[in-house]
């Protein structure tokens, strides 16, 4: 039997802006909004594309993994207070 497990965890916060074109927004302006072939703006556009690809890959991962995944409940000390069987002979008849 083949078995594998994946844990996907991504957390990155990026704040980027072109010094020469501070108003350029790759999400809104797209590739056509890049002025003068600015390499920094192209990098921002590529970064935005990578973000979109990452989001799509994450959605695909979740879509494919959901039928196989099971939710792990965090270990909780209050959970260990399960009702134990009463001691032998203490049950009323
Ligand atoms: Zn620029």
Give the gist of this structure.
The chain has 93 residues and is mostly helical. It has helices at residues 26-29, 39-65.
Structure, explained:
The chain is mainly α and 93 residues long. It has two helices and no strands. It has helices spanning 26-29, 39-65. The chain is elongated and about 85 Å long. Zinc ion (ZN) binds next to helix 2.
Tell me the strand percentage band.
under 5%
Alpha carbon gyration radius = 26 Å
Enumerate the spans where pLDDT stays under 50 for 5 or more consecutive residues. none
**Counted beta strands:** 0
What is the distance, rounded to the nearest whole angstrom, between the alpha carbons of the first and last residues? Answer: 50 Å
* Major sheet: none
Number of helices: 2
Instruction: List ligands, each type once.
Output: zinc ion
> What fraction, in percent, of the residue positions are helical?
25-40%
User: Oligomeric state of the chains?
Assistant: single chain
Region (Disordered): 65-93
């Amino acid at each position: 039997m083949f078995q594998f497990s994946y844990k996907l965890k991504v957390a990155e916060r990026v704040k980027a802006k072109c010094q020469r074109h501070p108003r350029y927004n790759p999400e809104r302006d797209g590739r056509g909004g890049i002025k003068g072939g600015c390499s920094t703006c192209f990098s921002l556009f590529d970064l935005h594309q990578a973000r979109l690809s990452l989001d799509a890959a994450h959605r695909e991962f979740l879509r494919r993994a959901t039928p196989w995944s099971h939710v792990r409940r965090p270990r909780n000390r209050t959970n260990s207070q399960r009702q134990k069987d009463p001691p032998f002979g203490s049950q009323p008849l």
